[in-house]
Amino acid sequence: MSKNPFLFNTHDLPRRAGEMREYELTIDEHEALGFEVLAIAADEPIDIDLRIESVAEGVLATASVRTEASGECGRCLDPVFYDVDETFQELYEYVEDPRQARKRNKPGKSGKSGKSGDKRAQKNDEDDLDEDLVRQMEGDLIDLDGPIRDAIILNLPINPLCSADCPGLCPDCGVKWIELPEEHEHAPADIRWAGLENWNTGTPEGGPTGV
Ligand SMILES: [Zn+2]
Ligand SMILES: [Zn+2]
Q: 76 CA to middle of ligand 1, Å?
């Protein structure tokens, strides 16, 4: 994707403190957001209620973010779905000289979504703390990528479960405990019989010594 789907143009908002506009946005295409075990799929719509307000220093964005993460249970590998409903508020400061903005926003800002996709979420957070302590307008544009990403990823469970008491899988046959009878077991009986068998048919060298 060449274009950052999270860029929002604030040109309809008068640059007068106290002015306010509200929008309902849906972002249909974006990179997958989350972890291997639980993520917002790239084609999963992200619904955003966005309010932007003119304040003295810039534009204050307040938003609620709703979408659905999908993944698999960490114990039984069943599919799991997780409703995301988060909010954020972010101030984007005006930049008088756009060239100044370019210097202060570290290079690679526009390619950020691509870059961070390859890293773990934790690394993203560190990057964002570094880079975005103060977010800045890019002309009329505000980049919602960072705050949306944080609102979603920081609130996803790292170890998703289909239910809190999911018993998981039998380690020997990989079948769900839920589908197995209560007395289900493998190893102990098998090993005991295998041992006896060897002992009975054992050659003299294999038999017990010192008796
Ligand atoms: Zn499970
Ligand atoms: Zn089993």
A: 4
Report the C-alpha gap between 96 and 94 in whole angstroms.
Answer: 6
Ion ligand 2: residues, CB < 5 A: 170, 172-173
Q: What is the pLDDT of residues 114-157, one digit of tens each?
A: 444 444 444 444 444 545 478 999 999 999 999 999 999 999 99
Residue with the bigger pLDDT between 200 and 94: it is 94
Alpha carbon of 39 to those of 60, 97, 186: distances in Å?
28, 38, 36
pLDDT tens-digit map of 41-55: 999 999 999 999 999
For the entire predicted model, the pTM comes to 0.69
Please provide the size of the chain in residues. 211
Q: CB of 73 within 8 A of CB of 161?
A: yes
Locate the domains of the chain by residue range: 7-153, 177-204
Q: Return the amino acid letter for 118.
A: D
Integer Cα distance of 125 and 123 in angstroms: 5
